[in-house]
Specification:
It is a single chain. The chain is α/β, with parallel strands linked by helices. The protein folds into 2 domains: 179 residues, 2-Layer Sandwich (Beta Polymerase, domain 2); 140 residues, 3-Layer(aba) Sandwich (Rossmann fold). Helix content is 43%, strand content 14%. It is built from 10 helices and 10 strands. Helix 7 links the parallel strand 5 and strand 6. Helix 3 packs across helix 10, helix 5 runs antiparallel to helix 10 and helix 6 crosses helix 7. The radius of gyration is 21 Å and the shape is globular.
Length: 344
């Protein structure tokens, strides 16, 4: 099966390199270079990983082309932090990713929607070859089947639970504190929902388009604000960043203008990061990124490893089954590289 993936994730590199790599891939993906080459990739970029999936008659050549594009965007050596997979290994990898088995947060549910969105966006931009359509459609199906089979994984400690515990340990009177959420993202919405159940009283959602979030705000008794509120972020005890912004929303230069006695907690869940790491130098600021929070979460997930291994076994079996189906279909076709196919 002529499929491949080139990527980087939380296991192969730290936040800093993942941030640079994600920005480089986004520039490549939205650029015009694809017009010169027969590579129409799918870009999957999340807080845990940035990966480009591709299909070609010449997988080695396509892989070399992608690497060359990246070398033109990143001015230092990075290749030793990347991973590449082809054929069945690539298929198995995406199936594990979609099932939440390759995430720092075991069995996370956001990744299913993120994979689907990446596939949908690429389908709207490029004429994707049939192996890529088959890969993504079947991996999304496998992800759903794994989650429905192993219901125990639904009670694995979540990121929002860990965030609440961390903040509660830093603020004994957490329910009385003002909290600002930056970005109307799926992860921020999940945290808001969780915090609401914990009877948090003063939460504000900062988004570029407040009007589009009015219904959600009414449901959870949120205050809504535009990006201008970031100029007074220090009026909040805790700020949680989950924006898709490509640049820092809070910068280190602001340290000179910060004069506060109360402790502040900044949680940066985004890749690329929304908060300049230099802000952590302030004695009253606790800044945690997604990797640091995932480390805390991982310690709470160890007891679910048996169910996780059983899920891994199921994924491998389902992948082998789907590859056999694909190969049987291909054997009845006239040998040529297939174009776009109807989504199922």
């Amino acid at each position: 099966m002529r499929i491949g993936v080139l990527g980087i994730n939380y296991k192969s590199s730290d936040v800093s390199l993942r941030e640079i790599f994600a920005k480089a891939c986004q520039r490549i993906f939205t650029g015009s270079k694809w017009e010169l080459f027969s590579i129409n990739p799918v870009l999957l970029s999340t807080c845990n990983r940035t990966e480009m999936y591709f299909s070609s008659r010449d997988l080695a050549g396509a892989h070399s082309t992608l690497l060359q594009f990246l070398r033109e965007e990143i001015p230092f050596g990075f290749e030793d932090r990347l991973y590449s997979m082809f054929g069945e290994e690539c298929f198995n990898h995406l199936a594990r990713v979609t099932s939440g088995l390759d995430s720092s947060i075991l069995a996370e549910t956001e990744i299913q929607q993120q994979v689907k969105k990446a596939y949908t966006v690429a389908s709207s931009l490029f004429l994707l070859p049939s192996p890529i359509h088959f890969l993504f459609q079947k991996c999304l199906k496998i992800g759903k089947e794994v989650r429905s089979t192993f219901c125990t994984l639904r009670i694995v400690p979540t990121l929002e639970n860990v965030i609440f515990q961390v903040c509660n340990s830093l603020f004994p009177d957490l329910r009385e504190k003002k909290i600002l959420f930056v970005g109307n993202s799926q992860i921020n919405r999940k945290i808001i929902s969780f915090f609401s159940k914990k009877m948090m009283k003063d939460m504000t959602l900062c988004t570029r388009w407040p009007a589009s979030s009015e219904r959600f705000a009414r449901e959870y008794s949120l205050k809504l604000a535009g990006r201008s509120i970031l100029s007074s972020w220090d009026q909040f005890s805790m700020v949680i960043f989950g924006s898709l912004e490509q640049d820092y929303l809070l910068r280190g230069e602001e340290l000179e203008n910060i004069n506060m006695e109360e402790n502040k907690v900044l949680l940066d869940l985004s890749i690329p990061r929304n908060v300049d790491p230099a802000l952590a130098r302030h004695p009253n600021i606790t800044l945690l990124n997604i990797d640091q929070l995932s480390d805390l979460l991982g310690k709470r997930q160890d007891k679910y490893q048996q169910e996780a291994q059983q899920s891994e076994d199921l994924v491998r079996w389902l992948v082998e089954k789907q590859i056999a189906i694909f190969q049987e279909k291909e054997s009845f076709k006239t040998p040529h590289f297939q174009g776009n196919v109807e989504m199922v």
